[in-house]
Amino acid sequence: MKFRIVLMAAGFSRRFGGNKLLAEIEGRPVYRYALDKLKALSVREDVEGAVVVTQYEEIASAADEMGLDMVFNHAAIEGIASSLRAGIRFFKEEKDRAYVFMVCDQPHMRIETLSGLLDFYKKTDKGIVCVADPSGIPGNPVIFHERYYGELAALTGDKGGSRIFKKHPEDLGKFTVDPAELKDIDVREDL
What's the pTM value of the predicted model, to 2 decimals? Predict the structure, then answer.
């Protein structure tokens, strides 16, 4: 099994009142935390490729400086599904692949957790695996087996892959993590 990682960094941060990905936490922009983790994951033998999907020049430039592949999302106004589609279309469709979707606004997500999620996916017989808090509430990141490529490519609007795993609850596995890692940045008070 080979992983293809898509980091989605093209949102509009409407509730935040500005681009939350450029906001700073401890002197670093929020997006840098995700890029660093993506770079660290990309060296795993089971990671075939990683791509950053963004509409922001600063993030695109930083990804390029780090040697990460990047896709510019010109359709970001359509919602998160446009980033999902752009990410999977970056890769050539092949058998025995899984797509890992990460969001860019979870600065407290640990690299050990992300690596553990990939290891967990390889041990389970489920085609979809996501992180979850101890009560079982699913969150990001999420991994989809390539058999869901068609459904991912057909997504529209501002809802992501959760629509797919709600359709296939029997094929969903959950990797329990510390709830603090799942916290994303939605409003300025979250910084």
Answer: 0.92
CA–CA distance, 20 with 10 (Å, rounded to integer):
11
pLDDT tens digit string along 116-149? 999 999 999 999 999 999 999 999 999 999 999 9
Q: At 55, list the tokens.
A: 């509409």
Tell me the pLDDT tens digit for each residue of 162-177.
899 899 999 999 999 9
Confirm if 52 and 58 have CB atoms less than 8 A apart.
no
Contacts of 176 by beta carbon, 8 Å cutoff, 6+ apart: 131, 132, 133, 134, 136
- The count of other CB atoms within 10 Å of the CB of residue 104 is 29
Q: Which secondary-structure segment (H or E) carries 102? A: strand 97-103
The helix/strand/coil state of 93 is coil
Q: What is the DSSP string of 27-87?
A: TEEHHHHHHHHHHHHTTSTTEEEEEEEES-HHHHHHHHHTT-EEEE-TTGGG-HHHHHHHH
C-beta separation of 96 from 1 below 8 A: yes
